[in-house]
Design brief:
This protein has 255 residues and is mainly α. The chain is built from 14 helices and no strands. Helix 9 packs antiparallel against helix 10 and helix 11 packs antiparallel against helix 12.
Length: 255
């Protein structure tokens, strides 16, 4: 089923950021300690937010071992964080050339292509990642996200269903399925998913998005008073908010 997609809903279907791939121990044997030092130097600098310094470490690592697929992959992630998408794709291409069964490289190249609105290429990469790794939850969620963006809502939901089947505790998968159900007009299903998201969230973890989307669904169902009460109750229990308090601002919109 295809349907126009409101921007406010699509924002919640954004693709997830990847994490670094760990280096296999045998990749350090021939280059020796220097390779080990550059790899973990890159990880540490990345965690500190020094992306240029981290890229320099992986540059040195690649000089030592030009056939290290994981080094190219991790450098690609850093370049993607800097929004240097062309360089990121070039590194993912090289990682895939060196390691054709590198499912994560296909998945993350697909994420960059989707960000660049190369939707057909992104879909091909996500499908290939799933073919290589049928248990790859993130690839199903990413494929579902781009299908929803394209307006293929039934196909999007099918992919979120698969992600949930593989990881029944994935708050992200339930949130994305809820948003897609809302786009399709299935407000009951969307609200059910959002309520379950709230139940899944560990104590102390932010549940802002689940409550915001629940509020949106209830308002669209004409239950504005109930939506406001639920959001007000959540805001009353919310603690340790840092940064812009956008949930409180949203709560002032309805009347």
């Amino acid at each position: 089923m295809k349907r126009a997609k409101p921007l406010a809903c699509i924002v919640g279907l954004l693709l997830s950021v990847a994490t670094f791939a760990r280096q296999p121990a045998d990749s350090f044997r021939r280059p020796g300690l220097a390779s080990f030092a550059h790899y973990y130097g890159g990880l540490m600098k990345s965690e500190e937010g020094d992306f240029n310094g981290a890229i320099a470490e992986f540059n040195h690592l690649i000089e030592l071992n030009p056939r290290d697929a994981i080094a190219y992959y991790n450098r690609g992630l850093l370049e993607a964080n800097k929004r240097d998408f062309n360089r990121a794709i070039a590194d993912f291409n090289r990682a895939i050339q060196l390691s054709p069964k590198f499912a994560r490289a296909f998945n993350d190249r697909g994420s960059i292509k989707a960000t660049m609105r190369e939707i057909d290429g992104a879909i091909a990469d996500f499908n290939h990642a799933i073919q290589l790794s049928p248990q790859f939850v993130q690839a199903y969620m990413n494929l579902g996200s781009v299908m929803a963006y394209r307006g293929d809502l039934d196909e999007a939901i099918a992919n979120f269903n698969q992600a949930i089947q593989l990881d029944p505790d994935s708050v992200e998968a339930f949130e994305k399925r809820a948003l897609t159900r809302q786009l399709k007009g299935d407000f009951e299903g969307a609200l059910s998913d959002l309520i379950y998201c709230d139940e899944l969230a560990p104590p102390g973890e932010s549940r802002d998005y689940a409550h915001l989307y629940s509020w949106l669904v209830r308002v669209r169902r004409g239950q504005t008073a109930e939506a406001n009460r639920e959001l007000a109750a959540y805001l009353g229990s919310r603690r340790n908010t840092t940064g812009p308090d956008w949930v409180s601002k949203i709560a002032r919109f309805p009347s």
